[in-house]
TrEMBL record:
Source organism per UniProt: Durusdinium trenchii
InterPro entries according to UniProt: Band-7_stomatin-like, Band_7, Band_7/SPFH_dom_sf, Stomatin_HflK_fam
Residues in the signal sequence: none
Coiled-coil parts of chain: 244-278
UniProtKB keywords: Coiled coil
Pfam families, per database record: Band_7 (PF01145)
Protein name as annotated: Uncharacterized protein AF_1420
Length: 338
């Protein structure tokens, strides 16, 4: 860094000097300002160089400290561990001409390897083929891809005291391989049991109708609770879905009867409303026809037309005008003769 600035510093001192100045005269004010600027720049450069040197010294101290800690750890190891380490190295040397013979570990893409040295975490391995000490080290491969757990059916009591059988599917992935290995003993079994318990809790907080009508809300609630609980394990639960909700045959018949009764009640209400509206309309029509006899006559002809055009009907001959009083007199006289 100091070398890069060394070529630009002399250019700051190259200021044109007027030939009219004599040896005893002072340089102009612009020359003095240039000198002061150059001096400040040199001071800044010296400070930057000192800062770089201090950072380098700090890095060297940290490196030496890490090396000393590693050396101290090796010194504190039991002598038997050192012997096993040497035997493992010797085995690696002799097995190398034969392709490794067990001292190479392969980590597939989408997974990560965790190396344990004497049962203690030592380092991580990226996907690929790695050599390790078979005498003192153990490699555990942890998949990081999205996995699926099929939750077995279980019987659950709903909020309205009805028994249902539910099953689900859970999608998850491992975010931290060290937490999965060292924070929980068997993370797959633990996650399966957690999903079952959470499903039982959430379904028990809702009625049967809410389970059927609001299934997305239940799925989101179950996913939220499980993801919050598995965060310290190094696992992320992306989705939990209820696959099937089964009820007993007797309950199915009861629900069908309830649905049928509701449909019939709605049909009767609709029919009653239609009759009420038609009655009000007919009342208005009769009032209008009473005021205008010709309208009543037209309606009568329309009724005759409908009767004549519907199906097999006999021909009906009726008078075009009927006087109610005359009809009553005829009926009365006929009854007297009989």
């Amino acid at each position: 860094m100091a070398t890069a600035f060394a070529f630009s510093v002399p250019s700051l001192f190259q200021h044109p000097v007027s030939p009219s100045l004599s040896k005893g005269q002072a340089p102009p004010s612009s020359a003095s300002s240039t000198l002061s600027t150059s001096a400040g720049f040199l001071a800044f450069l010296a400070g930057s160089t000192g800062a770089v040197r201090s950072v380098e010294r700090s890095a060297r101290r940290l490196s030496s400290r890490a090396k000393s800690e590693k050396t101290e750890k090796k010194k504190r190891e039991p002598f038997s561990n050192k012997i096993r380490t040497v035997f493992g190295q010797i085995y690696s040397i002799f097995a190398l001409p034969f392709g490794g013979a067990g001292n190479f570990a392969r980590v597939d893409q989408g997974s990560v390897g965790v190396v344990l040295r004497f049962g203690k975490f030592d380092r991580m391995l990226e996907p690929g083929r790695h050599q390790f000490n078979v005498a003192v080290e153990q490699v555990l491969v942890v998949p990081l891809k999205i996995a699926c757990i099929d939750v077995q059916p279980q019987m659950v009591m709903t909020k309205d005291n009805l028994t249902v059988t539910i099953d689900a599917v859970c999608f998850y992935r491992v975010l931290d391989a060290t937490k999965v290995l060292f924070e929980v003993q068997n993370y797959k079994q633990a996650l399966t049991n957690l999903v079952q318990v959470t499903m039982r809790t959430v379904v028990g907080e809702n009625s049967l109708s809410e389970i059927f009508a609001q299934r997305p809300r239940l799925n989101a609630r179950i996913t939220e609770l499980i993801d919050a609980a598995t965060g310290p394990w190094g696992i992320e639960v992306s989705q939990v879905e209820l696959k099937e909700v089964q009820i007993q045959q007797s309950m199915q018949r009861a629900l069908a009867a309830v649905a049928e009764a509701q449909q019939e009640a709605e049909a009767k209400l609709i029919q009653a409303k239609a009759q009420r509206e038609s009655a009000s309309i007919l009342a208005e029509a009769s009032k209008a026809m009473g005021e205008d006899p010709a309208a009543l006559q037209l309606q009568w002809f329309e009724t005759l037309r409908i009767i004549a055009t519907q199906g097999k009907n006999a021909t009906v001959i009726v008078p075009d005008r009927i006087d109610p009083e005359s009809a009553l007199r005829v009926t009365g006289s006929g009854g007297g003769q009989n």
